[in-house]
Write a structure and sequence with these properties.
This is Response regulator. Pfam families: GGDEF_2, HTH_18, Response_reg. Residues 3-120 form the Response regulatory domain. By secondary structure, the protein is α/β, with parallel strands linked by helices. The chain folds into three domains: 2-128, Response regulator (Rossmann fold), CATH 3.40.50; 172-295, Alpha-Beta Plaits (2-Layer Sandwich), CATH 3.30.70; 305-404, Arc Repressor Mutant, subunit A, CATH 1.10.10.60. It is built from 16 helices and ten strands. Strand 9, helix 9 and strand 10 form a beta-alpha-beta unit. The chain is elongated.
Length: 405
């Protein structure tokens, strides 16, 4: 049975509505009546009626204010206005407020029954749609993640149908964009915290994408995460990823992480290739032991083992007066061969790589805010703070104090 509430300041009108029509034959039971809008609102909150018959001109709270309060409170019901006034303002005010219909008194019984029947029919349709949407909102994330796993595995079967369902329900997935992979580095000093680190970085990236209003879809895997970002601007993608890494660092995470970004894909058929690109970008990080964002094709790689070993030595000794001679001796190669290897495989000289690494660590320390500029200079291998500031400005375009903000 549907529940009905009657609100009118005239007792005889309320009595006539209750007795003139055998409501129970139509599957409706009158659960209460009120003489003004405030009493009616209290009863509506108490009984949760499906349909409310309401007068317009009443004391305490009129019909227009009542309809608006019903909408503000999100009451799941249909309101039919019954009034002896046909002024435009009354009609407009109630219908714009959310009333289903506006009927003029005296009311024809058949017309009232038919109007209530249509109001309840619309209410049921809305409720079914709401239940369906709630169901889909619960299952859509798993459906979307299944789609993403299929796509990165190269299985495009059913992708179009699944995407149409996702888009029909407003679930975010871009037809064009970039694929992002985040992972904990295998040589991190805190490798045991890798799963937590991957999740933390994923959460920071999701926050950044939401703030930018970017449609995205992500899935957490055992050793890394994958995110489809429906954004064609690769520079913006990189900035969002860098901001996520910065927040990850500020949270005090010890595990070193890398984010790899693919080239832009034109549609979902390119997701498999984009996944390979992002994974390769993440694996081709030149600078070890420091969090980084790497775009596919923007840096060199794959790097030869001796280059990576040299960079590892730099990462462990950058605060010292390290030279190419030191590294060459450590690797048991000649200085000339090592310098040639850097130029050929990296496209930078040894000293340029050393300086770049020192500047990366300096920026990290500046973001942390724990040290003064002269202390950071010393910690990254510069005994002269003024010279450090000159190098930093040449490398970043900003003085250390300006970078820190």
């Amino acid at each position: 049975m549907f529940k009905m509430l009657v609100i009118d300041d005239e007792y005889l009108v309320r009595l006539g509505i209750r007795q003139a029509i055998p409501w129970e034959r139509h599957g409706i039971v009158v659960v209460g009546e009120a003489a003004n809008g405030q009493q009616g609102l209290d009863l509506a909150l108490q009984h949760a009626p499906d349909v409310i018959l309401c007068d317009v001109r009443m004391p305490v709270m009129d019909g227009i204010a009542f309809v608006r309060r019903v909408q503000e409170l999100g009451l799941d019901c249909a309101v039919v206005i019954l009034s002896g006034y046909k002024e435009f303002d009354y009609v407009k005010g109630t219908l714009e407020g959310g009333a289903f219909a506006y009927l003029l008194k005296p009311i024809d019984d058949d017309e009232l029954i038919e109007t209530v029947r249509r109001a309840l029919q619309q209410l049921e349709q809305r409720r079914r749609a709401t239940r369906r949407d709630q169901h889909w909102q619960q299952v859509l994330p798993s459906v979307a993640q299944s789609l993403l796993l299929k796509l990165i595995a190269g299985d495009a079967s059913g992708a179009r149908e699944l995407q149409e369902v996702l888009e029909a329900y407003g679930f975010p997935i871009g037809r064009r964009g970039h694929l992002i992979v985040g992972q904990a580095d295998p040589d991190s000093s805190d490798s045991e915290g890798a799963p937590q680190a991957v999740r933390a970085l994923h959460d920071q990236l999701e926050q950044g994408l939401r703030e930018q209003g970017v449609p995205h879809l992500g899935v957490l895997l055992e050793s890394h995460f994958v995110v489809l970002a429906g954004m064609e601007d690769g520079d913006l993608v990189q900035r969002v990823c860098e901001a996520a890494v910065a927040r990850y660092e500020q949270a005090g995470a010890a595990t070193t992480v890398t984010v790899g970004i693919s080239q832009a894909y034109a549609d979902l058929s390119g997701v498999e290739a984009a996944y390979r690109q992002a994974r390769e970008a993440a694996r081709s990080k030149l600078f070890p032991l420091v969090n980084a964002v790497v775009r596919y094709g923007a840096e060199g790689g794959p790097y030869k083992p001796q280059v990576l070993a040299a960079m590892r030595y730099i990462a462990e000794h950058y605060a010292e007066d390290v030279t190419v001679r030191d590294v060459a001796a450590h690797l048991h190669v000649s200085e000339s061969y090592l310098m040639h290897l850097f130029r050929e495989n990296v496209g930078l000289t040894f000293n340029e790589c050393l300086t770049a690494y020192r500047m990366m660590m300096a920026k990290k320390m500046l973001r942390e805010g724990k040290y003064r500029v002269y202390e950071i200079a010393e910690r990254v291998g510069y005994s002269d703070p003024k010279y450090f500031s000159q190098v930093f400005r040449k490398h970043t375009g900003l003085l250390p104090s300006q970078y820190r903000g």
